[in-house]
From TrEMBL, chain A:
Membrane-spanning intervals of the chain: 21-44, 79-104, 116-141, 153-178, 199-221, 271-293
Functional summary from the UniProt entry: Part of the binding-protein-dependent transport system for phosphate; probably responsible for the translocation of the substrate across the membrane.
Signal peptide: none
GO cellular component terms, semicolon-separated: plasma membrane
This protein's name: Phosphate transport system permease protein
GO biological process: phosphate ion transport
Family of the protein in this entry: Belongs to the binding-protein-dependent transport system permease family. CysTW subfamily.
Domain ABC transmembrane type-1: from-to ranges: 80-294
Subcellular localization(s) per the UniProt record: Cell membrane
Main subcellular location of this protein, as a coarse class: membrane
InterPro entries: MetI-like, MetI-like_sf, Phosphate_PstC, Phosphate_Transport_Permease
Keywords per UniProt: Cell membrane, Membrane, Phosphate transport, Transmembrane, Transmembrane helix, Transport
Species annotation: Paenibacillus zeisoli
Membrane topology: Multi-pass membrane protein
Automatic annotation (TrEMBL), chain B:
Alphabetical UniProt keywords: ATP-binding, Cell membrane, Hydrolase, Membrane, Nucleotide-binding, Phosphate transport, Translocase, Transport
Protein name: Phosphate ABC transporter ATP-binding protein
Gene: pstB
PROSITE patterns: ABC_TRANSPORTER_1, ABC_TRANSPORTER_2
SUPFAM superfamilies the record matches: P-loop containing nucleoside triphosphate hydrolases
Lineage: Bacteria, Bacillati, Bacillota, Bacilli, Bacillales
Species annotation: Paenibacillus zeisoli
Length: 299, 251
Protein backbone atom coordinates (compact mmCIF):
# COMPACT_ATOMS: atom_id res chain seq x y z
CA UNK A 1 0.00 0.00 0.00
CA UNK A 2 1.18 3.45 -0.86
CA UNK A 3 0.94 6.03 1.86
CA UNK A 4 -1.43 8.94 1.38
CA UNK A 5 1.40 11.46 1.16
CA UNK A 6 2.56 9.84 -2.10
CA UNK A 7 -0.73 10.28 -3.87
CA UNK A 8 -0.38 13.92 -5.01
CA UNK A 9 3.14 13.19 -6.20
CA UNK A 10 2.02 10.14 -8.14
CA UNK A 11 -0.84 12.12 -9.57
CA UNK A 12 1.51 14.84 -10.74
CA UNK A 13 3.79 12.23 -12.32
CA UNK A 14 0.89 10.66 -14.19
CA UNK A 15 -0.30 14.06 -15.33
CA UNK A 16 3.13 14.89 -16.71
CA UNK A 17 3.36 11.55 -18.50
CA UNK A 18 -0.06 12.06 -19.95
CA UNK A 19 0.88 15.53 -21.09
CA UNK A 20 4.13 14.42 -22.71
CA UNK A 21 2.44 11.49 -24.49
CA UNK A 22 -0.29 13.74 -25.74
CA UNK A 23 2.14 16.37 -26.91
CA UNK A 24 4.36 13.90 -28.69
CA UNK A 25 1.54 12.19 -30.63
CA UNK A 26 0.03 15.56 -31.51
CA UNK A 27 3.32 16.72 -32.99
CA UNK A 28 3.62 13.53 -35.05
CA UNK A 29 0.11 13.95 -36.40
CA UNK A 30 0.67 17.62 -37.21
CA UNK A 31 3.86 16.69 -39.05
CA UNK A 32 2.00 14.11 -41.13
CA UNK A 33 -0.79 16.53 -41.93
CA UNK A 34 1.70 19.18 -43.04
CA UNK A 35 3.45 16.70 -45.34
CA UNK A 36 0.21 15.50 -46.88
CA UNK A 37 -1.08 19.01 -47.42
CA UNK A 38 2.22 20.11 -48.97
CA UNK A 39 2.20 17.21 -51.41
CA UNK A 40 -1.38 17.80 -52.43
CA UNK A 41 -0.74 21.54 -52.73
CA UNK A 42 2.43 21.06 -54.77
CA UNK A 43 0.87 18.59 -57.21
CA UNK A 44 -2.22 20.72 -57.55
CA UNK A 45 -0.41 24.01 -58.25
CA UNK A 46 1.92 22.33 -60.70
CA UNK A 47 -0.93 20.43 -62.32
CA UNK A 48 -3.11 23.50 -62.64
CA UNK A 49 -0.37 25.69 -64.13
CA UNK A 50 -0.61 23.69 -67.36
CA UNK A 51 -4.01 25.28 -67.83
CA UNK A 52 -3.59 28.51 -65.87
CA UNK A 53 -0.11 29.55 -67.03
CA UNK A 54 0.61 27.59 -70.19
CA UNK A 55 -2.92 28.09 -71.48
CA UNK A 56 -3.49 24.51 -72.53
CA UNK A 57 -7.23 24.02 -72.69
CA UNK A 58 -8.61 21.63 -70.11
CA UNK A 59 -10.92 19.94 -72.58
CA UNK A 60 -8.06 19.43 -75.05
CA UNK A 61 -6.10 17.83 -72.25
CA UNK A 62 -8.90 15.56 -71.06
CA UNK A 63 -10.46 14.69 -74.41
CA UNK A 64 -7.73 15.30 -77.00
CA UNK A 65 -6.21 12.15 -78.39
CA UNK A 66 -2.95 13.56 -79.78
CA UNK A 67 0.01 13.69 -77.47
CA UNK A 68 2.77 15.62 -79.18
CA UNK A 69 4.46 18.06 -76.80
CA UNK A 70 6.75 19.37 -79.55
CA UNK A 71 3.69 20.56 -81.51
CA UNK A 72 2.12 21.87 -78.32
CA UNK A 73 -0.52 19.12 -78.44
CA UNK A 74 -1.29 17.77 -75.00
CA UNK A 75 -4.16 15.32 -75.44
CA UNK A 76 -3.94 12.93 -72.50
CA UNK A 77 -7.01 10.88 -73.35
CA UNK A 78 -5.02 7.87 -74.61
CA UNK A 79 -3.26 7.61 -71.26
CA UNK A 80 -6.37 8.15 -69.17
CA UNK A 81 -8.10 5.54 -71.29
CA UNK A 82 -5.12 3.19 -71.00
CA UNK A 83 -5.03 3.51 -67.22
CA UNK A 84 -8.73 2.80 -66.82
CA UNK A 85 -8.70 -0.02 -69.34
CA UNK A 86 -5.75 -1.88 -67.84
CA UNK A 87 -6.84 -1.54 -64.24
CA UNK A 88 -10.43 -2.52 -65.03
CA UNK A 89 -9.25 -5.55 -66.98
CA UNK A 90 -6.85 -6.45 -64.20
CA UNK A 91 -9.71 -6.33 -61.69
CA UNK A 92 -11.90 -8.42 -63.97
CA UNK A 93 -9.19 -11.07 -64.25
CA UNK A 94 -8.08 -11.01 -60.62
CA UNK A 95 -11.43 -10.81 -58.79
CA UNK A 96 -12.81 -14.27 -59.57
CA UNK A 97 -9.42 -15.86 -58.92
CA UNK A 98 -9.06 -14.04 -55.61
CA UNK A 99 -12.57 -14.87 -54.42
CA UNK A 100 -12.03 -18.54 -55.31
CA UNK A 101 -8.70 -18.58 -53.47
CA UNK A 102 -10.33 -16.98 -50.43
CA UNK A 103 -13.23 -19.46 -50.50
CA UNK A 104 -10.77 -22.32 -50.83
CA UNK A 105 -8.91 -21.16 -47.74
CA UNK A 106 -11.92 -20.45 -45.54
CA UNK A 107 -14.69 -22.74 -46.73
CA UNK A 108 -13.43 -25.65 -48.79
CA UNK A 109 -10.37 -26.82 -46.85
CA UNK A 110 -10.11 -24.52 -43.82
CA UNK A 111 -7.85 -27.07 -42.08
CA UNK A 112 -4.83 -26.72 -44.37
CA UNK A 113 -5.90 -24.39 -47.18
CA UNK A 114 -4.97 -21.29 -45.27
CA UNK A 115 -1.64 -22.69 -44.10
CA UNK A 116 -0.70 -23.43 -47.69
CA UNK A 117 -2.05 -20.40 -49.51
CA UNK A 118 -1.53 -17.62 -46.99
CA UNK A 119 2.29 -17.58 -47.27
CA UNK A 120 2.02 -17.76 -51.06
CA UNK A 121 -0.28 -14.75 -51.11
CA UNK A 122 1.99 -12.82 -48.76
CA UNK A 123 4.96 -13.66 -50.95
CA UNK A 124 3.10 -12.43 -54.03
CA UNK A 125 2.37 -9.18 -52.22
CA UNK A 126 6.01 -8.73 -51.30
CA UNK A 127 7.61 -9.23 -54.71
CA UNK A 128 8.86 -5.86 -56.05
CA UNK A 129 7.00 -4.58 -59.08
CA UNK A 130 10.13 -4.46 -61.23
CA UNK A 131 10.38 -8.23 -60.83
CA UNK A 132 6.81 -8.63 -62.04
CA UNK A 133 7.61 -6.43 -65.01
CA UNK A 134 10.76 -8.38 -65.76
CA UNK A 135 8.95 -11.72 -65.62
CA UNK A 136 6.17 -10.27 -67.74
CA UNK A 137 8.63 -9.08 -70.32
CA UNK A 138 10.66 -12.30 -70.41
CA UNK A 139 7.89 -14.90 -70.24
CA UNK A 140 4.46 -13.38 -70.76
CA UNK A 141 5.29 -11.14 -73.71
CA UNK A 142 6.96 -13.88 -75.84
CA UNK A 143 4.03 -16.17 -75.02
CA UNK A 144 1.52 -13.52 -76.08
CA UNK A 145 3.49 -12.86 -79.23
CA UNK A 146 3.32 -16.53 -80.20
CA UNK A 147 -0.30 -17.02 -79.24
CA UNK A 148 -2.10 -13.84 -80.21
CA UNK A 149 -1.80 -11.29 -83.00
CA UNK A 150 0.53 -8.35 -82.39
CA UNK A 151 3.90 -7.92 -80.81
CA UNK A 152 3.14 -9.48 -77.45
CA UNK A 153 3.50 -6.19 -75.65
CA UNK A 154 0.27 -4.26 -75.16
CA UNK A 155 -2.87 -3.75 -73.09
CA UNK A 156 -3.49 -7.46 -72.50
CA UNK A 157 0.05 -8.09 -71.23
CA UNK A 158 -0.19 -5.04 -68.96
CA UNK A 159 -3.54 -6.11 -67.57
CA UNK A 160 -2.33 -9.66 -66.89
CA UNK A 161 0.78 -8.48 -65.04
CA UNK A 162 -1.37 -6.06 -63.04
CA UNK A 163 -3.95 -8.71 -62.25
CA UNK A 164 -1.29 -10.88 -60.65
CA UNK A 165 -0.02 -7.92 -58.68
CA UNK A 166 -3.44 -7.09 -57.24
CA UNK A 167 -4.36 -10.72 -56.54
CA UNK A 168 -2.98 -10.56 -52.97
CA UNK A 169 -4.89 -7.36 -52.16
CA UNK A 170 -8.27 -8.74 -53.13
CA UNK A 171 -7.58 -12.22 -51.77
CA UNK A 172 -6.54 -11.08 -48.33
CA UNK A 173 -9.48 -8.71 -47.94
CA UNK A 174 -11.89 -11.39 -49.12
CA UNK A 175 -10.30 -13.95 -46.79
CA UNK A 176 -10.65 -11.64 -43.80
CA UNK A 177 -14.26 -10.93 -44.65
CA UNK A 178 -15.08 -14.61 -45.03
CA UNK A 179 -13.30 -15.42 -41.79
CA UNK A 180 -15.31 -12.79 -39.94
CA UNK A 181 -18.62 -14.13 -41.22
CA UNK A 182 -20.78 -15.27 -38.28
CA UNK A 183 -20.79 -19.07 -38.11
CA UNK A 184 -24.48 -19.19 -37.34
CA UNK A 185 -25.40 -17.84 -40.78
CA UNK A 186 -23.85 -20.91 -42.37
CA UNK A 187 -25.58 -23.11 -39.82
CA UNK A 188 -28.92 -21.52 -40.68
CA UNK A 189 -28.37 -22.34 -44.33
CA UNK A 190 -27.22 -25.92 -43.74
CA UNK A 191 -30.08 -26.34 -41.29
CA UNK A 192 -32.56 -25.61 -44.07
CA UNK A 193 -31.03 -28.37 -46.15
CA UNK A 194 -28.96 -26.17 -48.44
CA UNK A 195 -25.85 -27.79 -49.87
CA UNK A 196 -22.39 -26.34 -49.43
CA UNK A 197 -22.48 -24.67 -52.86
CA UNK A 198 -25.95 -23.29 -52.29
CA UNK A 199 -24.71 -21.92 -48.99
CA UNK A 200 -21.66 -20.37 -50.64
CA UNK A 201 -23.46 -18.56 -53.43
CA UNK A 202 -26.76 -18.04 -51.64
CA UNK A 203 -25.56 -16.83 -48.24
CA UNK A 204 -21.83 -16.44 -47.95
CA UNK A 205 -21.03 -14.48 -51.11
CA UNK A 206 -23.99 -12.08 -50.90
CA UNK A 207 -23.22 -11.37 -47.24
CA UNK A 208 -19.57 -10.51 -47.80
CA UNK A 209 -20.08 -8.86 -51.19
CA UNK A 210 -19.51 -5.30 -49.94
CA UNK A 211 -16.17 -6.36 -48.44
CA UNK A 212 -15.19 -8.17 -51.61
CA UNK A 213 -16.04 -5.04 -53.59
CA UNK A 214 -13.88 -3.03 -51.21
CA UNK A 215 -11.03 -5.41 -52.03
CA UNK A 216 -11.68 -5.02 -55.73
CA UNK A 217 -11.67 -1.23 -55.50
CA UNK A 218 -8.44 -1.22 -53.50
CA UNK A 219 -6.95 -3.63 -56.03
CA UNK A 220 -7.98 -1.32 -58.84
CA UNK A 221 -6.45 1.61 -57.00
CA UNK A 222 -3.20 -0.29 -56.76
CA UNK A 223 -3.34 -1.21 -60.46
CA UNK A 224 -4.16 2.38 -61.40
CA UNK A 225 -1.11 3.67 -59.59
CA UNK A 226 1.36 0.99 -60.64
CA UNK A 227 3.97 2.34 -63.06
CA UNK A 228 7.07 0.28 -63.51
CA UNK A 229 5.72 -3.19 -64.25
CA UNK A 230 3.12 -1.85 -66.68
CA UNK A 231 5.56 0.35 -68.44
CA UNK A 232 7.78 -2.67 -69.11
CA UNK A 233 5.12 -4.68 -70.94
CA UNK A 234 2.53 -2.27 -72.35
CA UNK A 235 4.57 -0.89 -75.23
CA UNK A 236 4.09 2.82 -74.44
CA UNK A 237 2.62 3.93 -77.74
CA UNK A 238 0.87 7.30 -77.18
CA UNK A 239 -2.43 6.47 -78.85
CA UNK A 240 -5.78 4.89 -78.07
CA UNK A 241 -5.46 1.15 -78.66
CA UNK A 242 -8.07 -0.47 -80.88
CA UNK A 243 -7.28 -4.01 -79.76
CA UNK A 244 -6.14 -5.59 -76.52
CA UNK A 245 -3.00 -6.78 -78.21
CA UNK A 246 -1.94 -3.34 -79.31
CA UNK A 247 0.68 -1.20 -77.65
CA UNK A 248 -0.65 1.58 -75.40
CA UNK A 249 0.28 3.85 -72.48
CA UNK A 250 -1.02 4.65 -69.05
CA UNK A 251 -0.81 7.87 -67.04
CA UNK A 252 1.86 6.37 -64.81
CA UNK A 253 3.97 4.93 -67.58
CA UNK A 254 4.02 8.25 -69.42
CA UNK A 255 5.10 10.09 -66.29
CA UNK A 256 7.97 7.70 -65.49
CA UNK A 257 9.15 7.63 -69.08
CA UNK A 258 9.13 11.39 -69.60
CA UNK A 259 9.88 13.01 -66.28
CA UNK A 260 13.65 12.99 -66.76
CA UNK A 261 13.38 14.41 -70.28
CA UNK A 262 11.56 17.59 -69.31
CA UNK A 263 12.64 20.78 -67.64
CA UNK A 264 10.95 21.83 -64.44
CA UNK A 265 8.56 24.70 -65.17
CA UNK A 266 8.22 23.94 -68.87
CA UNK A 267 4.83 23.19 -70.31
CA UNK A 268 5.95 19.62 -71.06
CA UNK A 269 6.82 19.18 -67.42
CA UNK A 270 3.63 20.79 -66.17
CA UNK A 271 1.55 18.50 -68.38
CA UNK A 272 3.08 15.54 -66.55
CA UNK A 273 2.07 17.15 -63.26
CA UNK A 274 -1.45 17.47 -64.56
CA UNK A 275 -1.48 13.74 -65.12
CA UNK A 276 -0.14 13.21 -61.62
CA UNK A 277 -3.02 15.36 -60.42
CA UNK A 278 -5.49 13.10 -62.20
CA UNK A 279 -3.90 10.06 -60.54
CA UNK A 280 -4.22 11.78 -57.19
CA UNK A 281 -7.85 12.69 -57.80
CA UNK A 282 -8.59 9.12 -58.81
CA UNK A 283 -7.06 7.92 -55.53
CA UNK A 284 -9.47 10.20 -53.70
CA UNK A 285 -12.32 8.69 -55.66
CA UNK A 286 -11.20 5.15 -54.81
CA UNK A 287 -10.92 5.99 -51.12
CA UNK A 288 -14.34 7.61 -51.23
CA UNK A 289 -15.89 4.54 -52.86
CA UNK A 290 -14.32 2.27 -50.24
CA UNK A 291 -15.74 4.45 -47.48
CA UNK A 292 -19.14 4.31 -49.10
CA UNK A 293 -19.00 0.52 -49.31
CA UNK A 294 -17.95 0.23 -45.69
CA UNK A 295 -20.76 2.44 -44.58
CA UNK A 296 -23.28 0.37 -46.52
CA UNK A 297 -21.88 -2.80 -45.02
CA UNK A 298 -22.56 -1.60 -41.49
CA UNK A 299 -26.29 -1.30 -42.04
CA UNK B 1 -47.03 -44.17 -36.77
CA UNK B 2 -44.03 -45.05 -38.85
CA UNK B 3 -41.91 -41.91 -38.75
CA UNK B 4 -41.09 -41.84 -35.08
CA UNK B 5 -37.73 -40.33 -34.21
CA UNK B 6 -35.66 -42.62 -32.03
CA UNK B 7 -32.04 -42.81 -30.90
CA UNK B 8 -30.27 -46.00 -30.02
CA UNK B 9 -27.14 -46.04 -27.87
CA UNK B 10 -26.16 -42.68 -29.36
CA UNK B 11 -22.69 -41.49 -28.42
CA UNK B 12 -21.11 -38.26 -29.68
CA UNK B 13 -17.44 -37.43 -29.31
CA UNK B 14 -15.44 -34.24 -29.82
CA UNK B 15 -12.00 -35.65 -30.43
CA UNK B 16 -11.50 -37.93 -27.42
CA UNK B 17 -14.11 -36.21 -25.28
CA UNK B 18 -17.38 -38.14 -25.04
CA UNK B 19 -20.07 -35.47 -24.81
CA UNK B 20 -23.10 -37.74 -25.23
CA UNK B 21 -22.80 -41.13 -23.56
CA UNK B 22 -25.10 -43.67 -25.11
CA UNK B 23 -28.62 -42.33 -25.20
CA UNK B 24 -31.76 -44.30 -26.03
CA UNK B 25 -34.73 -42.08 -26.54
CA UNK B 26 -37.97 -42.18 -28.48
CA UNK B 27 -39.77 -38.95 -29.25
CA UNK B 28 -43.53 -38.91 -29.16
CA UNK B 29 -45.05 -37.48 -32.32
CA UNK B 30 -47.07 -34.29 -32.30
CA UNK B 31 -45.93 -33.42 -28.86
CA UNK B 32 -43.24 -31.35 -27.24
CA UNK B 33 -40.26 -32.95 -25.56
CA UNK B 34 -38.10 -30.74 -23.38
CA UNK B 35 -34.42 -31.47 -22.79
CA UNK B 36 -33.19 -30.06 -19.50
CA UNK B 37 -29.98 -30.37 -17.54
CA UNK B 38 -27.01 -28.37 -16.30
CA UNK B 39 -24.80 -26.45 -18.69
CA UNK B 40 -22.37 -28.60 -20.66
CA UNK B 41 -24.29 -31.84 -20.16
CA UNK B 42 -24.61 -32.42 -23.90
CA UNK B 43 -28.14 -31.21 -24.68
CA UNK B 44 -27.12 -29.12 -27.70
CA UNK B 45 -24.76 -31.80 -28.93
CA UNK B 46 -27.51 -34.40 -28.73
CA UNK B 47 -29.99 -32.08 -30.44
CA UNK B 48 -27.57 -31.25 -33.26
CA UNK B 49 -26.92 -34.91 -33.96
CA UNK B 50 -30.64 -35.38 -34.67
CA UNK B 51 -30.41 -33.49 -37.95
CA UNK B 52 -26.72 -34.14 -38.50
CA UNK B 53 -25.63 -30.56 -37.84
CA UNK B 54 -22.66 -32.09 -36.03
CA UNK B 55 -21.39 -33.15 -39.47
CA UNK B 56 -20.32 -29.53 -39.90
CA UNK B 57 -18.16 -29.54 -36.76
CA UNK B 58 -14.66 -30.78 -37.50
CA UNK B 59 -13.50 -33.41 -35.03
CA UNK B 60 -16.95 -34.56 -33.96
CA UNK B 61 -17.75 -38.25 -34.30
CA UNK B 62 -20.72 -40.41 -33.52
CA UNK B 63 -21.61 -44.03 -32.81
CA UNK B 64 -24.98 -45.70 -32.36
CA UNK B 65 -28.06 -45.02 -34.46
CA UNK B 66 -30.74 -42.46 -35.02
CA UNK B 67 -33.88 -43.77 -36.64
CA UNK B 68 -36.78 -42.09 -38.35
CA UNK B 69 -39.24 -44.93 -38.64
CA UNK B 70 -37.03 -47.69 -39.98
CA UNK B 71 -34.52 -45.41 -41.72
CA UNK B 72 -31.11 -44.78 -40.26
CA UNK B 73 -30.43 -41.06 -40.76
CA UNK B 74 -26.68 -41.64 -40.88
CA UNK B 75 -26.80 -44.35 -43.52
CA UNK B 76 -25.28 -43.65 -46.91
CA UNK B 77 -28.74 -43.72 -48.49
CA UNK B 78 -29.89 -40.69 -46.51
CA UNK B 79 -29.57 -37.39 -48.34
CA UNK B 80 -28.60 -34.96 -45.61
CA UNK B 81 -30.27 -32.04 -47.41
CA UNK B 82 -33.60 -33.89 -47.45
CA UNK B 83 -33.11 -34.93 -43.84
CA UNK B 84 -32.57 -31.35 -42.71
CA UNK B 85 -35.59 -30.25 -44.65
CA UNK B 86 -37.63 -32.80 -42.68
CA UNK B 87 -35.97 -31.91 -39.36
CA UNK B 88 -35.73 -28.15 -38.98
CA UNK B 89 -33.69 -26.28 -36.40
CA UNK B 90 -33.82 -22.98 -34.55
CA UNK B 91 -30.86 -21.71 -32.57
CA UNK B 92 -30.44 -19.79 -29.34
CA UNK B 93 -29.40 -16.58 -31.07
CA UNK B 94 -31.63 -15.39 -33.89
CA UNK B 95 -29.60 -15.80 -37.07
CA UNK B 96 -31.52 -14.23 -39.96
CA UNK B 97 -29.69 -13.94 -43.26
CA UNK B 98 -28.61 -10.43 -44.25
CA UNK B 99 -31.50 -10.36 -46.67
CA UNK B 100 -35.07 -9.12 -46.76
CA UNK B 101 -37.74 -10.75 -44.65
CA UNK B 102 -39.19 -12.26 -47.80
CA UNK B 103 -35.85 -13.63 -49.00
CA UNK B 104 -35.16 -15.17 -45.60
CA UNK B 105 -38.29 -17.28 -45.85
CA UNK B 106 -38.06 -18.00 -49.57
CA UNK B 107 -34.44 -19.16 -49.30
CA UNK B 108 -35.13 -22.77 -48.31
CA UNK B 109 -38.06 -23.44 -50.67
CA UNK B 110 -36.07 -21.95 -53.57
CA UNK B 111 -33.22 -24.35 -53.08
CA UNK B 112 -35.65 -27.23 -52.75
CA UNK B 113 -36.87 -26.49 -56.25
CA UNK B 114 -39.80 -24.08 -55.94
CA UNK B 115 -39.36 -21.34 -58.51
CA UNK B 116 -42.92 -20.17 -59.09
CA UNK B 117 -43.32 -16.67 -57.66
CA UNK B 118 -46.96 -17.13 -56.64
CA UNK B 119 -46.15 -20.34 -54.84
CA UNK B 120 -43.25 -18.67 -53.04
CA UNK B 121 -45.47 -15.75 -52.02
CA UNK B 122 -47.92 -18.22 -50.56
CA UNK B 123 -45.22 -20.10 -48.66
CA UNK B 124 -43.85 -16.85 -47.25
CA UNK B 125 -47.27 -15.78 -46.05
CA UNK B 126 -48.16 -19.20 -44.60
CA UNK B 127 -44.85 -19.55 -42.78
CA UNK B 128 -45.06 -16.07 -41.31
CA UNK B 129 -48.63 -16.68 -40.21
CA UNK B 130 -47.67 -19.96 -38.55
CA UNK B 131 -44.92 -18.12 -36.71
CA UNK B 132 -47.39 -15.39 -35.65
CA UNK B 133 -45.33 -12.73 -37.40
CA UNK B 134 -47.38 -12.01 -40.50
CA UNK B 135 -49.41 -9.11 -39.13
CA UNK B 136 -46.32 -7.36 -37.86
CA UNK B 137 -44.34 -7.57 -41.09
CA UNK B 138 -46.78 -7.93 -43.96
CA UNK B 139 -46.26 -4.32 -45.02
CA UNK B 140 -42.51 -4.51 -45.06
CA UNK B 141 -41.66 -7.92 -46.45
CA UNK B 142 -38.90 -6.48 -48.58
CA UNK B 143 -37.04 -4.60 -45.87
CA UNK B 144 -33.98 -6.10 -44.22
CA UNK B 145 -34.60 -8.85 -41.68
CA UNK B 146 -31.98 -7.20 -39.49
CA UNK B 147 -34.33 -4.26 -38.91
CA UNK B 148 -36.61 -6.52 -36.85
CA UNK B 149 -36.44 -6.71 -33.06
CA UNK B 150 -34.73 -9.70 -31.44
CA UNK B 151 -38.02 -11.39 -30.66
CA UNK B 152 -39.31 -10.79 -34.18
CA UNK B 153 -36.05 -12.09 -35.62
CA UNK B 154 -36.42 -15.29 -33.64
CA UNK B 155 -39.97 -15.78 -34.87
CA UNK B 156 -38.66 -15.09 -38.37
CA UNK B 157 -36.14 -17.89 -37.86
CA UNK B 158 -38.96 -20.18 -36.78
CA UNK B 159 -40.94 -19.15 -39.86
CA UNK B 160 -37.87 -19.83 -41.97
CA UNK B 161 -37.55 -23.30 -40.47
CA UNK B 162 -41.24 -23.91 -41.19
CA UNK B 163 -40.92 -22.76 -44.80
CA UNK B 164 -39.57 -26.11 -45.95
CA UNK B 165 -42.41 -27.96 -44.28
CA UNK B 166 -40.58 -30.04 -41.68
CA UNK B 167 -42.06 -32.91 -39.66
CA UNK B 168 -39.82 -32.30 -36.70
CA UNK B 169 -38.55 -29.04 -35.21
CA UNK B 170 -35.48 -28.81 -32.99
CA UNK B 171 -35.30 -25.70 -30.79
CA UNK B 172 -32.10 -24.96 -28.89
CA UNK B 173 -32.97 -22.48 -26.13
CA UNK B 174 -35.08 -20.49 -28.61
CA UNK B 175 -36.23 -17.92 -26.06
CA UNK B 176 -33.23 -17.51 -23.81
CA UNK B 177 -32.11 -14.30 -25.52
CA UNK B 178 -35.57 -12.75 -25.48
CA UNK B 179 -37.70 -10.55 -23.25
CA UNK B 180 -40.70 -12.02 -21.37
CA UNK B 181 -43.26 -10.86 -23.91
CA UNK B 182 -41.40 -12.33 -26.87
CA UNK B 183 -40.82 -15.45 -24.81
CA UNK B 184 -44.49 -15.97 -24.12
CA UNK B 185 -45.21 -15.42 -27.81
CA UNK B 186 -42.76 -18.15 -28.70
CA UNK B 187 -44.25 -20.47 -26.09
CA UNK B 188 -47.73 -19.88 -27.44
CA UNK B 189 -46.39 -20.62 -30.86
CA UNK B 190 -44.89 -23.91 -29.75
CA UNK B 191 -48.28 -24.96 -28.36
CA UNK B 192 -49.84 -24.15 -31.71
CA UNK B 193 -47.15 -25.86 -33.79
CA UNK B 194 -47.20 -29.16 -31.95
CA UNK B 195 -50.60 -29.88 -33.45
CA UNK B 196 -48.83 -30.71 -36.67
CA UNK B 197 -45.18 -31.17 -35.67
CA UNK B 198 -42.96 -33.10 -33.36
CA UNK B 199 -40.97 -30.61 -31.29
CA UNK B 200 -37.81 -31.07 -29.26
CA UNK B 201 -36.82 -28.06 -27.17
CA UNK B 202 -33.73 -27.46 -25.06
CA UNK B 203 -34.35 -25.03 -22.23
CA UNK B 204 -32.80 -23.84 -19.01
CA UNK B 205 -36.04 -22.35 -17.87
CA UNK B 206 -37.86 -24.89 -15.69
CA UNK B 207 -41.15 -23.00 -15.78
CA UNK B 208 -40.91 -22.95 -19.54
CA UNK B 209 -40.28 -26.70 -19.70
CA UNK B 210 -43.24 -27.27 -17.39
CA UNK B 211 -45.46 -24.94 -19.42
CA UNK B 212 -44.76 -26.05 -22.97
CA UNK B 213 -43.69 -29.68 -22.89
CA UNK B 214 -45.53 -32.98 -22.74
CA UNK B 215 -42.41 -34.98 -21.96
CA UNK B 216 -39.21 -33.99 -20.23
CA UNK B 217 -35.80 -35.57 -20.42
CA UNK B 218 -33.24 -34.77 -17.77
CA UNK B 219 -29.62 -34.94 -18.95
CA UNK B 220 -26.66 -35.09 -16.64
CA UNK B 221 -23.00 -35.31 -17.73
CA UNK B 222 -23.86 -36.68 -21.15
CA UNK B 223 -26.30 -39.32 -19.91
CA UNK B 224 -30.08 -39.45 -19.89
CA UNK B 225 -30.94 -39.62 -16.21
CA UNK B 226 -34.69 -39.57 -16.38
CA UNK B 227 -37.28 -39.32 -19.10
CA UNK B 228 -40.98 -39.19 -18.48
CA UNK B 229 -44.15 -37.19 -18.82
CA UNK B 230 -43.51 -33.62 -17.81
CA UNK B 231 -46.09 -33.68 -15.05
CA UNK B 232 -44.40 -36.68 -13.47
CA UNK B 233 -40.88 -35.26 -13.77
CA UNK B 234 -41.93 -32.05 -12.11
CA UNK B 235 -44.11 -33.49 -9.39
CA UNK B 236 -42.69 -36.87 -8.66
CA UNK B 237 -39.27 -37.52 -10.18
CA UNK B 238 -37.78 -40.93 -9.47
CA UNK B 239 -34.18 -39.74 -9.01
CA UNK B 240 -33.04 -37.38 -6.25
CA UNK B 241 -30.63 -35.76 -8.72
CA UNK B 242 -33.53 -34.75 -10.97
CA UNK B 243 -35.42 -33.38 -8.00
CA UNK B 244 -32.45 -31.28 -6.99
CA UNK B 245 -31.97 -29.88 -10.47
CA UNK B 246 -35.57 -28.91 -11.14
CA UNK B 247 -35.92 -27.32 -7.74
CA UNK B 248 -32.91 -25.20 -8.60
CA UNK B 249 -30.54 -26.55 -6.00
CA UNK B 250 -27.77 -26.89 -8.60
CA UNK B 251 -27.09 -26.43 -12.30
N1 LIG C 1 -17.65 -27.71 -31.05
C1 LIG C 1 -17.21 -28.34 -29.93
N2 LIG C 1 -15.94 -28.79 -29.87
C2 LIG C 1 -15.48 -29.43 -28.77
N3 LIG C 1 -16.21 -29.66 -27.68
C3 LIG C 1 -17.49 -29.24 -27.66
C4 LIG C 1 -18.05 -28.56 -28.80
N4 LIG C 1 -19.33 -28.26 -28.52
C5 LIG C 1 -19.55 -28.72 -27.26
N5 LIG C 1 -18.45 -29.33 -26.75
C6 LIG C 1 -18.33 -29.96 -25.44
O1 LIG C 1 -19.32 -30.96 -25.33
C7 LIG C 1 -19.94 -30.92 -24.06
C8 LIG C 1 -21.43 -30.73 -24.24
O2 LIG C 1 -21.68 -29.44 -24.80
P1 LIG C 1 -23.11 -28.96 -25.23
O3 LIG C 1 -22.96 -27.68 -25.95
O4 LIG C 1 -23.80 -30.06 -25.92
O5 LIG C 1 -23.77 -28.72 -23.79
P2 LIG C 1 -25.17 -28.10 -23.42
O6 LIG C 1 -25.83 -29.08 -22.56
O7 LIG C 1 -25.89 -27.67 -24.64
O8 LIG C 1 -24.75 -26.85 -22.56
P3 LIG C 1 -25.48 -25.42 -22.44
O9 LIG C 1 -26.67 -25.64 -21.60
O10 LIG C 1 -24.47 -24.56 -21.77
O11 LIG C 1 -25.82 -24.96 -23.82
C9 LIG C 1 -19.27 -29.81 -23.30
O12 LIG C 1 -18.32 -30.39 -22.44
C10 LIG C 1 -18.61 -28.97 -24.33
O13 LIG C 1 -17.43 -28.42 -23.84
MG1 LIG D 1 -26.47 -25.73 -25.48
Amino acid sequence: MKSNQDTPLLLRKHRTEEWIGRGYTTICVLFLIVIIISIVYFVATKGISTFAINNVSLSDFLFGSTWSPDDNKFGALPFIYGSFLTSLLAAVIASPLSVCAALFMTEIVPSWGKKLLQPVIELLAGIPSVVYGFIGLSILVPFMRDTFPGQGIGVAAGAIVLSIMILPTITSIATDALGALPRNLKEASYGLGATRWQTIYGVIIPTVLPSILTGVVLGMARAFGEALAVQMVIGNAPHIPTSLFESASTLTSVITLNMSNTVMGSVQNNALWSMAMILMLMTFVFVFVVRLLERRHKL
Amino acid sequence: MTDTLRTENLKVYYGEHEAVKGIDMTFAEQSVTALIGPSGCGKSTFLRSLNRMNDEIPGSRQTGNIWIGDKDINSSETDVTVLRQKIGMVWQRPNPFYKSIYENIAFGPKYHGIKNRKQLDQIVEDSLRKAALWDEVKDRLHTSALSLSGGQQQRLCIARALSVNPDILLLDEPASALDPISTSKIEELIGELKKSLTIVIVTHNMQQAARVSDFTAYFYLGSLMEYNETSIIFTNPSKPNTQEYISGRFG
